[in-house]
Design brief:
Layout (H helix, E strand, L loop, with lengths): L1 H23 L47 E11 L5 E11 L16 E9 L7 E8 L5 E3 L5 E4 L2 E6 L2 E7 L3 E8 L5 E2 L5 E3 L7 E18 L2 E18 L7 E9 L4 E8 L5 E9 L5 E4 L5 E4 L2 E3 L6 E3 L2 E4 L4 E6 L5 E4 L5 E12 L2 E10 L9
């Protein structure tokens, strides 16, 4: 029975992953035996996606909620925590909302107007490999969803919500459980030009994007039968877009660092087919709260040591020298094996893990690094 249960779960996840891909497909495949008469159906009316344009002024807390008129959106929390013994580990929680190319006027409750995907991971050097889990579901029948006007996203028994000025997450994964509260210590950090973040030479490749760095983490971490108090610092990202990646981009390298002096640094680069920089951007907040936007010419990612996954054979540069306008830092991973296999939900494999920032060998901050498009080209 135990083996059958695992097969059923795997089958359900495979079906849901197929369903998400099927509903997102631009064209309906032809079905039939080959003997029936040919029938031409009129095209189904599809509600257009809203564009990301300069000049929009982000509103809080309203824009913490969902923006269903856009194609894709995600809420992303990463951080470092320690237990009572001082042991350090990293964690990641992401909720994705995507809107398929469907007729949203269809009144049926079975219409998948939204697909919700969630990822969670725990980076523990003592374990050696990434603990991770994933979920996917239609945004129907209260199985999953994201509310407009305030942060409230959920999928099954996973959730991320704003409660009384703080943020609360509860994630019950396969072999770990997060029960964390995130308390803001700084105002939102608007990325790009007041929250309008370019992702390529074409101005249509963009997102609305803000961050909440230096979040104070408290709560409990459960691994197996062991439940421990946890505290630390986290980084929150929220982005939404209808045309995220430029046609020449294959993936991106992204870095969010909570600096030890109270400042914050975000930097990313979109990679072209040759592996070089197609576009880049970022933001720096100094310890006194002053913020500066970083342009594509101010950011350089120089890859260092490469780690190869024993499972997929994918090679990831896990050590970096990052040069920005205000600073130059060396990035080293908490552990090498932080590869996240999300083929059952998002259909891709990427490296996302806890990293430390150094200057001349001295600790200056901690955060997370995300490397996509190394396994295969990312597709949005």
């Amino acid at each position: 029975m135990k083996g059958e249960g695992k097969k059923q779960v795997a089958g359900r996840r495979n079906f849901l992953a197929w369903l998400a891909a099927f509903l997102a497909a631009p064209e309906m495949p032809a079905l039939g035996t080959g003997h029936e008469a040919s029938v031409t159906l009129p095209p189904s009316p599809v509600t257009p996606f809203a564009p990301v344009v300069p000049g929009y002024r982000l509103r809080f807390p309203f824009d913490e909620g969902s923006h269903p008129e856009f194609r894709v959106e995600w809420w992303y929390v990463t951080g470092w925590i320690k237990n009572a013994d001082g042991k350090l580990s990293g964690f990641q929680i992401t909720f994705f909302r995507t809107r398929p190319d469907l007729d949203n006027a269809n009144p049926s409750a079975f219409t998948a107007r939204e697909i919700m995907v969630a990822h969670a991971a725990l980076s523990d050097p003592a374990h050696g490999t990434l603990r991770h889990d994933q979920r996917v579901s239609r945004g129907s029948f209260d199985l999953a969803g994201a509310k407009v006007g305030r942060l409230d996203v959920w999928l099954d028994n996973w959730s991320l919500r704003q409660e009384n000025g703080a943020y609360r997450t509860l994630v019950s994964a396969g072999d770990f459980l997060f029960d964390f509260t995130f308390n803001p210590t700084q105002s939102p950090l608007l990325q790009g030009e007041g929250g309008f973040s370019r992702k390529g030479p074409d101005i249509k490749s963009a997102s609305y994007y803000y961050s909440l760095p230096q979040l104070r983490v408290s709560g409990t971490l459960t691994v197996g039968d062991r439940r421990e108090r946890a505290s630390g610092t986290a980084w929150f990202d929220h982005e939404w877009s209808s045309s995220y990646m430029d046609k020449e981009a294959v993936g991106w390298d992204w870095l969010g660092i909570n600096l030890a002096d109270g400042g914050a640094l975000m930097a990313f680069r979109m990679r072209n087919k040759q592996g070089g920089k197609l576009w880049a951007g970022g933001a720096y907040r100094s310890p006194d709260g002053r913020t500066s936007s970083l342009g594509t010419d101010q950011i350089v990612f120089e890859p260092g040591r490469v780690w190869q996954s024993p499972r997929t054979g994918t090679r990831y540069p896990v050590s970096w020298l990052i040069k920005t306008g205000p600073m130059e830092i060396q990035i080293e991973p908490l552990m090498d094996d932080q590869e996240n296999d999300t083929r059952l939900s998002a259909g891709t494999i990427y490296w996302e893990g806890a990293v430390e920032a150094l200057q001349r060998g001295k600790h200056v901050g901690r955060g997370y690094l995300e490397l996509t498009g190394y396994w295969r080209r990312m597709s949005f």
